[in-house]
Amino acid sequence: MPPDRLSVKFAALADPTRRAILARLALGEASVTELATPFDMSLPGISKHLKVLERAGFIVRGRAAQWRPCRIAPGGLKDIDEWLAEHRRGWEERLDRLGDYLDELQSKEKKRARRKK
Amino acid sequence: MLGERSSEALPKLVLTRVFAAPRALVFQAWTDPRHMARWWGPKGFSNPVCEMDVQAGGRIRIDMRAPDGTVYPMTGMFREVVAPERLVFVCYAIPDNDGNPRLEVVNTVTFAERAGKTTLTLQAVVVNAAPGTETALDGMETGWTQSLDRLADIVVKRASRGRKTWPTEPPSTPAL
User: Fold this and answer.
1) Residue A116 sits in the same domain as residue A59
2) Does the distance separating the beta carbons of A4 and B135 come in below 8 Å?
3) Which CB contacts under 8 angstroms, 24+ apart, belong to B75-84?
4) Is the ipTM of this structure higher than 0.85?
């Protein structure tokens, strides 16, 4: 996936309000008014957050003119998961190498200690 | 995933690994660039440039070179250095065309020793994207602290098992 899209996704998740909106939507669809209630935030304020989430591909919004229910977009988190999995693989490989290197250092030290005896 | 309770809820991953080596040695392997250059990066990669100023605010610069010769530069900065138990450093990832990072990943590494073995725990949290990727929402007050109670959560966890083939008794002093 293009890095731009990925960074848009991470940027969308960087805000606690947006994460809370996603967590709420994970429980089921909701209207803008319903989403705004617990946040003590204006409807335009919430709408801005929803636009960010929508553009990042995390949510989709219904077509009904008055009541545009928001819900979680299927597969919206896939890119994030894939990036994290790749990042994890990178760390696993580093730690494998670190383990080998520590082995190497310690066996050298053992040899050196034996020679001294 | 989504809907799990978490106090942080930013995209993150956690790894744990047990090394049959004393903590001082493992910590040194992370903080001495001569040593880090020997293991940083995927298998087969070398690190022709490995520089670090190991103190809070100190810069990190590592150029990883792939077997095909491609060089992948990485920059970062230490936030906390508590020898020999804890390191916090930021890595800047996914550079844009001008070389500015789009993402910041905060890595917290802890080192705990028990019976001559060291348990290393690494937590990597994606904290930020470069300005410009986010719309101008700064300054909006959320005023909803309870939101911390239920947040979207993305966790990739893998508690690696300890390695199987270890020297039976590691030397008590580091070989560095």
Assistant:
1) no
2) no
3) B75/B101, B78/B52, B78/B53, B78/B54, B79/B106, B80/B56, B81/B31, B81/B54, B81/B55, B81/B56, B83/B27, B83/B31, B84/B23, B84/B24, B84/B26, B84/B27, B84/B28, B84/B111
4) no
On whether both A8 and A43 belong to a single domain, the answer is: yes
Q: Which of B139, B142, B128 is nearest to A18 (CA)?
A: B142
Tens-digit pLDDT profile for residues B103-141 = 788 999 999 999 999 999 999 988 766 554 443 333 222
More confident residue, B97 or B3: B97
| In chain A, residues 1-60 whose CB comes closer than 8 Å to chain B | 3-4, 6-8, 10-17, 19-20, 22-27, 38-41, 45, 48-49, 51-52
Task: Verify that A108 and A64 share a domain, yes or no.
Answer: no
Work out the percent of chain A whose per-residue pLDDT is above 70: 94
What domains are there in chain B, each with its CATH number? 12-131+151-159 (3.30.530.20)
Q: Which residue has the higher pLDDT, B80 or B155?
A: B80
Q: Give me the percent of chain B exceeding a pLDDT of 90.
A: 51
Domains of chain A: total:
2
Full domain range(s) for residue A113: 77-117
CB A24 within 8 A of CB A32: no
